[in-house]
């Protein structure tokens, strides 16, 4: 039946004719079909029907491809009844939807071979035969479903053909049986006659004999329905008739339902009418008619239906009703509302029950159930009436479940009828053949009544157990009706009361903006196993996504088996989601219920977004931790992840769960140490917890778990403060950690760090000292922002060498940011909120100062003493974010007020000042100045990173009108201008800078030179003209944006200016992972490929430290970012220090807040001047230091060793090579590079600063001018008292002094002096103060700074001047015997030293005079002016003046007179020559240099000591020079011998250290005689 191959394409005329027939078959309500689709359908259908034999059924199925993919079905038959409805029902029964059905019935002419020759009108002339052509479109199905569909359709068509063909025979059989039944019961015969008269769709007939044979098969009984009943059912039917025969009540007819569903007309259970066939006085066979009641028959009035009309009459009489009265009419109405097909089949007694029950329901609607067993007890018919408002699929299924609760019961069919405005009737046909007992209708009806009647009252009763009665009734009235029937059946009123209580708690909080919208409850049913729990989730707003809920519950250690949602009919009341959970093996659900409130709260917090959703929640049920304790463990893990610990979260949680004793011990230890409310003895409790930890750890066998738990213990032990017990912990946790106690932290190890953790933000603040400052960065690195911040803290530390505080840095990561591409404002708002949380949390464990006294934070146990200095700034949106931070600080009355975060609206605006760029530009100027170029007037080509809207890039590119900016890039565009006009381009850049917002795309393209342009980075490729290629030094004419940026970084320009974010240059030996900036991996270049002559680092981290060194070794000029852009932090520190001083004036009423702000603004230029001077001096100091070249390498190698000895300096962390590598480089003629020297410069300053702060030197009144000089003139004038009383007075003095020493002397001299003289760095600093004051060095330095000199000459003069000052400092140290009281020494010796300086010409002997003259002439020859050269050279002549002045003071004689005696000794013995030679020697070997320096001091000191002994004699006091002559006379032999040795030394240059050492030894022996 039906071919799978479509015939050849038919003719156009036939297609058109069929298309017209298809169009005509469209019903008025059908969707229109476009002509193309109809044409395609006609073509395909015609091909399917092309060849057909008379009476043949064709079925064709094909998957259509093309624009609309679908399944096409063609069914072609001779026209007959039941085709369309039977085919449609068959397709629907297989779960396939019908998208389109067309059914033209028309004349079709065919030739002798069955091929179509005409259709419709063109066929009517040839034939009267009409054919049914059914065309159907459905969604596509797979091959298996297509095979099933084809088979089902063929079976159905077979049934249709059989039923239609045998219709006359079935009619005849019905007539015979009507007569046969009428002989026994006229009403039964009339019923069969009535049905046979068109009230039954007859589909089949068969005769079943007692011997189990079948005969007279007609219709479907000879097709698909060969067995209408099971064998057991046939036997029951025979027995039923036999029983009545034996009782004398023969039955004419048995009407039942078959389990077989009809395939013809509609898919319903077949109605079977069984008539006994009596032969020989006994029933020998059963004549069975199969069919379906027609809709007319089902809807006919009962009084018109045979059998039913008799039932009505009999029942009316039996009940005594008047047929014309109310009850009689009500009885007929009740009959009319019940199904005719069933009433005729039921026992009259059961019909009476049904009808009277329905009569009662009409008067008083209520839930009711009546169950009627079929005659043969094969089936049960259940009639369920219930209020229509309570009807739902859920309710129907619940009732169905009750009916099928009896084992073996199976549903055959169900139907629904809404009978009136208040009632609905559900009818169920249930197969009970496999049941031992039939369903208990009384028990089921009781359940139904419980479900549907009195629900509100039952709920109110249960609510009254916990609520006041009136309130319970009100809650029940509000909530109970909203529970669907399915819920009522499953859970009952008691459970509903509990659920209402939970829902009510959510509803009560509706007015709270931060209210929870979800609550939970743990419970169990009696039948649940020991490992089973149930959890209800209550929701009043939104929906519960299983993809959110299931993982959350699994993170608590539960396995989710199922979820049953209940949606209250009033959506505003909420919904309930019931989860069935199982526990891991060994866990007892009952034990968890004992802690249910804690677990419920924790789960609710997660579902409400108030707590983190991760496996640490498992610690609450599994390890018995409180939610807050689990959160502590989570926070420690987050911190450890930031430090580089690689354990996964699952490993950590598993370890903590597996060792509950250890976990509990750590919690107990933490509470004992940090809970302010701890009642017991803290030490004893901590000791006990430690012992528990040790015992528990001994049971841990896994080595990884052991290491992990020990690490946890170490971190908890390193916590100095926490807000875990303070109210602030509700927002975020803070842990202040002594970093040195945490094992294996990456270097450099901070002095202190604060880790902040919450569900919205995580952050870290690292400090390298007690007084530290640095910005807070909004990081985009969730899992390693500490690594980023640590690198920034390291850079900040060396950058902060110019300011009072040491380096600090903070970073925070907002964890709940929306996508900025979707919600930019929401993204910014969440970032700001995270920043505010971070700031508040940091302050929650920070000391304050009130009334001059340090005040610890409330509810925080302090283990680290006083620590009030906490200063921050913002790396992004500086003014706005600083104002936010200051607002928080001011809201807490924090002592720093708006000095807490610099750069706010009442502070110094770095961008407006251009201070960072101006500071970096000082370095650029120095680079080019040393190359003989003035960047302010001479054009230089520039390429860079940034745009004119940025602070550093924008300001930087406006600092010289001579710049030729040939290329630049930012994250949006690439700018190229191969040959810019400096003046015009500067003007255009200035215009862009003034715009509120701008990009390179706003640049006036008309001003760009030929070959240039602005190109978006989003472009796939960029075409480069020749001019652009030339300026970049590349050949490619077409290039990708990233490659073009790399080309810019390699461009042969004079200056590469970094003013944007990102790291773009690395060393060749570095990989991208080491760089740590994955966003720019694709465009980063190697330093050895950079062809710029100079790199200026206005922004941080544009170049790695290794890349800076590589660039320098390759001939480039570069400092470091912390040198170049230190002006920003310097300016901020000045602002903070100024505000701290002015805060005292404001507090005393001396200065109003408004006047303070006015004063701050008025001092802007002077503050900028102070800052830029620091930058100038640092850059100059680097140049002076670099001028030492390879010869100085040994000294720097020793300096590195000294820095490692005196502090936490780590050469590897700072990017410095080993000493051997540096010395090998020196042997090749390459000294330390500027980037390496920059690290040493800053580190030396920091070491000096620490030493000075730890000494009494900052308290010396002589340094008060140093303190005052840090502030602008208006403050020095009006607020000097406040400056003197500054809280950071000592730190500021130490900072200024350490910077002054290193900037003027370099970093080697102070450390070598300390070694030479065996003193501390603080004593060296004090010696510097004395030397500077006694010899008036400041004017000389200023003169040297301002002199018009070639830079090479200036550097030489500064270098030699530093050497001379070093000699003077050594003199001071020896004079003071290493204990320098600076102020006292200056006061005591100023007069004597001044006299000696003034008497230089008189006092200087021939030997030193000649040496001084030669030095002066060398300076002049280099290009120095004579007076300046003389001043520098002369300073060497004053070596020993301090010691002589001190000796003169002690001896109470004229200093000049004593000096004459001093020089006499030198001249007589030749010691002037020896001392001068030693003073001017600069050996490369460290030890040799120390020896020579010591010898120079010895040659001086031994003469002073000799004179001191001489002064103790009367002759020496009266005539020092005469006493010297007398001594020489007495020791003439020794003097002669010594002079001979000197002569031999002078005759054999060069003089070595060994020779001088021998001379010193002999001289000491001689002078002690």
Structural class: alpha+beta
Q: Roughly what is the average pLDDT, rounded to an integer? A: 90
**Number of DSSP strand runs:** 38
User: Main β-sheet: number of strands, strand sense, barrel status?
Assistant: 7 strands, mixed
Distance between the termini: 141 Å
**Over the alpha carbons, how many angstroms does the gyration radius reach?**
52 Å
Low-confidence stretches: 1-8
Shape: elongated
User: What assembly state would you assign to the polypeptide chains in this entry?
Assistant: single chain
Report the helical percentage. Answer: 40-55%
Our count of helices gives 65
Tell me the β content. 5-15%
Spatially, the strands of the biggest sheet line up as 20-21-22-23-25-24-28
Fold and architecture overview:
By secondary structure, the chain is an alpha+beta fold. It is 51% helix and 15% strand. The strands form nine sheets. The chain has a seven-stranded mixed sheet, with helices on both faces. The longest helix has 26 residues, at 1486-1511. It is elongated and about 180 Å long.
Notable traits:
elongated, 1569 residues, 51% helix, alpha+beta, 15% strand
Element layout with pairings:
Elements: H1 12-25, H2 35-48, E1 58-64, E2 70-78, H3 83-93, E3 100-102, E4 105-110, E5 116-119, H4 121-124, E6 130-138, H5 143-165, H6 167-182, H7 186-199, E7 200-209, E8 214-219, H8 231-246, E9 254-261, E10 269-279, E11 282-293, H9 295-298, H10 308-319, H11 326-337, H12 340-343, H13 348-363, E12 368-373, E13 379-387, H14 393-403, E14 410-418, E15 423-431, H15 441-452, H16 455-463, H17 469-479, H18 485-508, E16 518-523, E17 532-539, H19 546-554, E18 559-567, E19 575-582, H20 589-594, H21 596-607, H22 619-622, H23 627-642, H24 649-658, H25 660-674, H26 682-698, H27 703-718, E20 719-722, E21 733-737, E22 752-757, E23 761-767, E24 772-778, H28 785-799, E25 806-814, H29 824-843, E26 848-850, E27 853-855, E28 871-874, H30 878-891, H31 910-913, H32 915-930, E29 940-945, H33 951-956, E30 963-969, E31 973-976, H34 982-994, E32 1013-1016, E33 1022-1023, H35 1026-1032, E34 1038-1039, H36 1041-1049, E35 1055-1058, E36 1065-1066, H37 1072-1075, E37 1085-1086, E38 1094-1097, H38 1105-1113, H39 1121-1124, H40 1126-1147, H41 1153-1162, H42 1164-1186, ...
Parallel strand pairs: 24-25, 24-28, 29-30, 29-35, 35-38, 36-37
Antiparallel strand pairs: 1-2, 2-6, 3-6, 4-5, 4-6, 7-8, 7-11, 9-10, 10-11, 12-13, 13-15, 14-15, 16-17, 17-19, 18-19, 20-21, 21-22, 22-23, 23-25, 26-27, 30-31, 31-32, 33-34
Helix pairs in contact: 1-2, 3-5, 6-7, 11-13, 14-18, 15-18, 16-17, 16-18, 24-27, 25-26, 25-27, 29-30, 32-40, 32-42, 40-42, 42-45, 42-49, 42-53, 43-44, 43-45, 45-49, 45-51, 50-51, 50-53, 50-61, 51-53, 51-54, 53-57, 53-58, 54-58, 56-57, 58-59, 58-61, 59-63, 60-61, 61-65, 64-65
């Amino acid at each position: 039946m039906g071919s799978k191959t479509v015939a050849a394409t038919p003719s156009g005329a036939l297609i058109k004719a069929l298309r017209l027939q298809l169009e005509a078959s469209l019903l008025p309500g059908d969707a229109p079909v476009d002509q193309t689709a109809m044409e395609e359908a006609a073509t395909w259908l015609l091909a399917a029907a092309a060849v057909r034999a008379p009476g043949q059924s064709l079925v064709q199925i094909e998957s259509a491809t093309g624009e609309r993919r679908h399944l096409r079905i063609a069914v072609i038959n001779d026209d007959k009844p039941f085709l369309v409805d039977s085919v449609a029902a068959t397709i629907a029964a297989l779960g396939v939807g019908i998208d389109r059905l067309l059914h033209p019935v028309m004349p079709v002419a065919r030739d002798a071979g069955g091929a179509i020759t005409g259709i419709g009108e063109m066929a009517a002339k040839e034939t009267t035969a009409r054919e049914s052509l059914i065309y159907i479109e459905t969604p596509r199905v797979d091959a298996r479903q297509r095979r099933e569909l084809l088979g089902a359709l063929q079976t159905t068509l077979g049934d249709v053909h059989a039923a239609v063909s045998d219709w006359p025979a079935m009619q005849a059989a019905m007539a015979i049986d009507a007569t046969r039944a009428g002989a026994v019961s006229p009403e039964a015969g009339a019923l069969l006659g009535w049905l046979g008269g068109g009230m039954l769709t007859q589909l089949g007939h068969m005769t079943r004999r007692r011997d189990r044979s079948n005969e007279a098969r007609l219709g479907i009984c000879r097709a698909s329905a060969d067995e209408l009943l099971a064998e057991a059912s046939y036997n029951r039917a025979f027995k039923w008739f036999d029983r009545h025969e034996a009782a004398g009540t023969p039955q004419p007819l048995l009407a039942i339902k078959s389990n077989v569903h009809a395939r013809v007309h509609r898919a319903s259970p077949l109605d079977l009418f069984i008539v006994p066939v009596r032969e020989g006085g006994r029933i020998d066979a059963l004549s069975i008619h199969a069919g379906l009641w027609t809709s007319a028959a089902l809807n006919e009035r009962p009084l018109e239906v045979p059998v039913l009309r008799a039932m009505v009459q009999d029942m009316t009489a039996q009940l005594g009703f008047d047929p014309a009265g109310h009850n009689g009419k009500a009885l007929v109405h009740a009959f009319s509302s019940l199904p005719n097909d069933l009433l005729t089949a039921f026992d009259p007694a059961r019909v009476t029950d049904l009808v009277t029950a329905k009569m009662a329901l009409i008067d008083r609607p209520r839930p009711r159930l009546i169950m009627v067993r079929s005659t043969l007890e094969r089936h049960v018919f259940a009639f369920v009436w219930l209020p229509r408002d309570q009807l739902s699929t859920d309710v129907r299924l619940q009732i169905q479940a009750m009916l099928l609760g009896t084992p073996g019961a199976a549903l055959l069919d169900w139907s629904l009828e809404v009978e009136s405005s208040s009632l609905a009737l559900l009818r169920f046909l249930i197969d009970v053949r496999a049941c031992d007992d039939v369903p208990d209708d009384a028990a089921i009806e009781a359940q139904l009544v419980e479900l549907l009647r009195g629900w509100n009252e039952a709920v109110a009763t249960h609510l009254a157990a916990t609520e006041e009665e009136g309130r319970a009734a009100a809650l029940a009235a509000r909530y109970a009706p909203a529970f669907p029937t399915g819920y009522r059946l499953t859970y009952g009123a008691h459970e509903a009361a509990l659920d209402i209580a939970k829902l009510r708690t959510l509803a009560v909080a509706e007015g709270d903006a931060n209210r929870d919208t979800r609550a939970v409850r743990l419970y169990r049913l009696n039948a649940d196993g020991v490992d089973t729990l149930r959890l209800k989730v209550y929701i009043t707003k939104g929906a519960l996504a299983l993809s959110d809920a299931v993982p959350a519950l699994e993170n608590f250690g539960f396995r989710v088996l199922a979820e049953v949602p209940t949606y209250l009919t009033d959506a505003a009341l909420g919904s309930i989601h019931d989860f069935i959970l199982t526990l891991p093996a060994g866990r007892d659900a009952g034990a968890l219920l004992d802690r249910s409130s804690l677990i419920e709260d924790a789960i609710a917090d997660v579902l409400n977004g108030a707590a983190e959703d991760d496996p640490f929640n498992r610690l609450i049920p599994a390890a018995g931790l409180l939610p807050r304790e689990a959160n502590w463990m989570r926070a420690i893990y987050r911190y450890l992840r930031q430090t580089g610990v690689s354990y996964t979260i699952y490993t950590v949680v598993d370890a903590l769960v597996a060792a509950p004793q250890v976990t509990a011990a750590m919690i107990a230890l933490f509470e004992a140490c940090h809970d302010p409310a701890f009642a017991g003895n803290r030490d004893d409790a901590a000791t006990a917890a430690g012992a528990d930890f040790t015992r528990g750890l001994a049971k841990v066998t896994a080595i990884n778990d052991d290491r992990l738990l020990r690490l946890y213990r170490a971190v908890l032990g390193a916590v100095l403060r926490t807000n875990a017990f303070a109210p602030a912990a509700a927002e975020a946790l803070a842990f202040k950690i002594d970093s040195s106690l945490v094992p294996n932290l990456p270097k450099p190890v901070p002095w202190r760090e604060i880790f902040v953790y919450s569900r919205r933000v995580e952050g870290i603040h690292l400090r390298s000292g007690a007084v530290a400052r640095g910005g807070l960065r909004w990081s985009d690195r969730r899992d390693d922002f500490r690594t980023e911040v640590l690198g920034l803290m390291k850079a900040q530390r060396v950058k902060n060498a110019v300011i009072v505080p040491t380096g600090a840095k903070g970073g925070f990561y907002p964890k709940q940011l929306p996508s900025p591409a979707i919600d930019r404002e929401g993204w910014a708002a969440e970032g700001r909120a995270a920043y505010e949380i971070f700031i508040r949390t940091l302050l929650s464990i920070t000391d304050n100062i009130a009334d001059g006294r340090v005040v610890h934070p409330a509810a925080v146990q302090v283990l680290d003493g006083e620590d009030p200095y906490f200063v921050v700034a913002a790396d992004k949106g500086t003014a706005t974010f600083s104002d936010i931070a200051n607002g928080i600080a001011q809201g807490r009355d924090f002592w720093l007020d708006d000095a807490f975060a610099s750069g706010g609206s009442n502070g110094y605006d770095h961008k407006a000042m251009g201070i960072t760029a101006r500071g970096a530009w000082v370095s650029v100027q120095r680079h080019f100045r040393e190359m003989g170029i003035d960047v302010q007037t001479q054009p230089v080509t520039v390429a860079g990173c940034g745009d004119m809207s940025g602070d550093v890039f924008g300001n930087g590119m406006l600092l010289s009108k001579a710049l030729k900016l040939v290329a630049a890039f930012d994250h949006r565009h690439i700018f190229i201008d191969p040959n810019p006009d400096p003046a015009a381009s500067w003007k255009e850049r200035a215009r862009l800078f003034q715009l509120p917002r701008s990009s390179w795309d706003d640049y006036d393209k008309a001003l760009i030179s030929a070959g240039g342009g602005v190109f978006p980075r989003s472009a796939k490729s960029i075409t480069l003209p020749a001019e652009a290629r030339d300026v970049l030094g590349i050949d490619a004419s077409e290039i990708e944006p990233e490659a073009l940026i790399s080309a810019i970084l390699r461009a042969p320009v004079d200056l590469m200016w970094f003013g944007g974010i990102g790291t773009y240059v690395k060393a060749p030996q570095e990989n991208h992972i080491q760089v740590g900036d994955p966003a720019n991996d694709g465009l980063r270049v190697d330093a050895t490929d950079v062809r710029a002559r100079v790199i200026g680092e206005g922004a941080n981290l544009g170049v790695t430290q290794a890349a800076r060194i590589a660039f320098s070794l390759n001939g480039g000029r570069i400092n470091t970012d912390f040198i170049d852009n230190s002006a920003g932090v310097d300016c901020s520190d000045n602002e903070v220090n100024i505000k701290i001083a002015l805060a005292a004036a404001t507090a005393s009423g001396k200065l109003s807040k408004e006047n303070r702000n006015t004063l701050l603004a008025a001092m802007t230029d002077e503050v900028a001047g102070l800052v830029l001077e620091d930058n100038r001096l640092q850059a100059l100091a680097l140049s002076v230091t670099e001028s030492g070249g390879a010869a100085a390498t040994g000294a720097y190698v020793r300096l590195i060793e000294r820095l490692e000895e005196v502090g936490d300096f780590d050469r590897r962390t700072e990017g410095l090579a080993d000493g051997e590598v540096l010395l090998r480089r020196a042997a090749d003629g390459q000294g330390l590079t500027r980037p390496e020297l920059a690290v040493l410069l800053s580190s030396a300053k920091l070491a000096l600063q620490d030493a000075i702060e730890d000494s009494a030197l900052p308290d010396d009144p002589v340094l008060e001018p140093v303190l005052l000089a840090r502030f602008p003139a208006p403050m020095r004038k009006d607020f000097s008292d406040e400056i003197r009383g500054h809280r950071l007075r000592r730190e500021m003095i130490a900072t200024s002094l350490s910077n002054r020493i290193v900037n003027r002397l370099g970093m080697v001299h102070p450390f070598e002096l300390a070694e030479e003289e065996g003193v501390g760095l603080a004593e060296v600093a004090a010696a510097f103060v004395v030397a500077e004051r006694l010899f008036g060095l400041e004017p000389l330095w200023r003169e040297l700074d301002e002199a018009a000199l070639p830079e090479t000459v200036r550097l030489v003069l500064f270098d030699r001047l530093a050497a001379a000052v070093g000699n003077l400092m050594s003199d001071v140290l020896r004079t003071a015997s290493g204990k320098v009281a600076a102020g006292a020494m200056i006061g005591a010796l100023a007069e004597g030293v001044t006299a000696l300086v003034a008497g230089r010409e008189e006092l200087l002997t021939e030997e030193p005079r000649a040496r001084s003259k030669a030095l002066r002439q060398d300076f002049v020859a280099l290009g120095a002016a004579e007076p300046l050269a003389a001043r520098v050279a002369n300073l060497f002549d004053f070596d020993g003046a301090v010691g002589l002045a001190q000796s003169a003071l002690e001896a109470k004689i004229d200093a000049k007179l004593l000096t004459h005696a001093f020089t006499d000794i030198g001249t007589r013995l030749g010691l002037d020559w020896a001392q001068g030679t030693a003073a001017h020697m600069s050996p490369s070997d460290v030890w040799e240099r120390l020896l020579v320096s010591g010898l120079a001091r010895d040659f001086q000191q031994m003469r002073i000591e000799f004179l001191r002994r001489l002064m103790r004699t009367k002759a020496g006091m009266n005539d020092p020079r005469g006493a010297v002559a007398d001594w020489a006379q007495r020791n003439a032999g020794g003097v002669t011998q010594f002079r001979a040795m000197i002569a031999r030394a002078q005759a054999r240059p060069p003089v070595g250290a060994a020779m001088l050492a021998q001379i010193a030894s002999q001289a000491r022996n001689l002078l002690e005689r």
